[in-house]
Every structure is written in structure tokens, then in C-alpha cells.
Recover the amino acids of this structure.
């Protein structure tokens, strides 16, 4: 079965610093999704990547999918306290089920 | 509008109670999902409905009973739960299920405590 490994598990950065979260799959990814979650709340959809080499940006967050479609990164530029939360990568289990599997999450703290 | 709503926000129930969780979306999505999330763990899929029909049941105990009355509504009926069922229950929806590549939108969740 497919597994997603996220690193680091947790991250504490000073406000204004850049950071990167990685997500590695044991199999080729059909679709890779990034979500953000505040503790005890729902998941907020950030971005979806499907094509090898694809890169998407929204405000100060950039997500990339490598050419082999087995690794993705999420980069935050000039972090702010509002970026704090748990970042989860998710992937389609296969091309035809719509079932998502998730990495274990990366907890981000941004110190003012 | 990418909103999925869930009620109630919090629920405390005894092991002999019967209760229901409700989920609603008005995005015209035809796939709806129930997830269970324990503390400091990622969400785990429970059920998937596609076009109002149950498509995936991840071997969930029968004390959890899903229902999809129409394309906008999803219920989760709870009966004779155990304390270990205490968790955050998340509902999600997406345009389709049968093909990957459709992002899922999540509701705020229901925090369930079983006493």
C-alpha cells in the first residue's frame, strides 16, 4: 500500500523566515494535495499537483511536484504567525478511487 | 463557495445513546466522505458516497451507519459507541470519486466524546 512520509514532523521558525516541508511517496503519485489544519478544526485545501515538475503558488506558499512524481515540497516565504498550523500532504491511493491517504503531518509554529 | 457545514460542532454521548452527525454542501459535488481523526494523527477514511450510493466502506464497525439522503446531505448515525470512538469526525466533498485529481473540501468537524 502507498505511504506518505512528511518531514520534518515539527518546525519552529522565527517570523519572516522561509521554510520548506517535504512529502515523499513510496509510489508514483496520481494527485498530490496540500492541506492546512488548525488543531481541532477542519482541513483547508491549499493546492493540488498532478503533473511531474508542476509548481503552484498562492500568496506566499509554493508547492512543487518532482518530475518522477514521488516527492513534493511546500515552501513558505517570509513566514507569518498566520501560517502556524498542521500541514498535511495527501495523495490519491490510485487513479480511480478518489480515496485519499495522508502523511502524518508537519506542525509549524511561527514565533513573532 | 467551497463551504462544507457540519453539525453539531461538539457532541457528548453515552455508550447507550443514539445520535447523528450531519454534513451539508451546496457545491454540486457528487462525492461525499466521512473521516475519523484521532489526536495528532491524520484523518482516516471511513465511508465514501458517490452519486448518493455507498462506494467505499473501510471496514467500519456497524455501530457507525452512514446515510446519504440526497446529493447535498450526508449523515452518520451513531449507536452503542465505545469510548475509543471519541475523535474528530470530518466530512468532505469533491466533484467526483471515480477519478483521482479532484480536491476534497472539508467541513469544520464534529468533536465527539463518548462517555
Amino acid at each position: 500500500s502507498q505511504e506518505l512520509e512528511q518531514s520534518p514532523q515539527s518546525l519552529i521558525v522565527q517570523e519572516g523566515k522561509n521554510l520548506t516541508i517535504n512529502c515523499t511517496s513510496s509510489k508514483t503519485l496520481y494527485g498530490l494535495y496540500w492541506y492546512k489544519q488548525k488543531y481541532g478544526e477542519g482541513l483547508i485545501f491549499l493546492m493540488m499537483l498532478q503533473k511531474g515538475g508542476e509548481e503552484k503558488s498562492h500568496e506566499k506558499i509554493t508547492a512543487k511536484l518532482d518530475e518522477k512524481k514521488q516527492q513534493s515540497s511546500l515552501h513558505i516565504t517570509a513566514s507569518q504567525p498566520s501560517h502556524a498550523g498542521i500541514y498535511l500532504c495527501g495523495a490519491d491511493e490510485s487513479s480511480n478511487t478518489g480515496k485519499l491517504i495522508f502523511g502524518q503531518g508537519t506542525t509549524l509554529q511561527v514565533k513573532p | 463557495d467551497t463551504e462544507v457545514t457540519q453539525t453539531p460542532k461538539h457532541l457528548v454521548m453515552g455508550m447507550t445513546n443514539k445520535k447523528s452527525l450531519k454534513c451539508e454542501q451546496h457545491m454540486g459535488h457528487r462525492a461525499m466522505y466521512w473521516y475519523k481523526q484521532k489526536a495528532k494523527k491524520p484523518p482516516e477514511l471511513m465511508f465514501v458516497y458517490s452519486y448518493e450510493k455507498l462506494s467505499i466502506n473501510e471496514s467500519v464497525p456497524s455501530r457507525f451507519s452512514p446515510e446519504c439522503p440526497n446529493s447535498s446531505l450526508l449523515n452518520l448515525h451513531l449507536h452503542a459507541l465505545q469510548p475509543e470512538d471519541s475523535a474528530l469526525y470530518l466530512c468532505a466533498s469533491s466533484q467526483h470519486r471515480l477519478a483521482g485529481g479532484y480536491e476534497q473540501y472539508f467541513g469544520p468537524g464534529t468533536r465527539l466524546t463518548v462517555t
User: Anything to note?
Assistant: The longest strand of chain B covers residues 18-25. Residues 52 and 71 of chain B are 6 Å apart (CA to CA). Chain B has a mean pLDDT of 93.
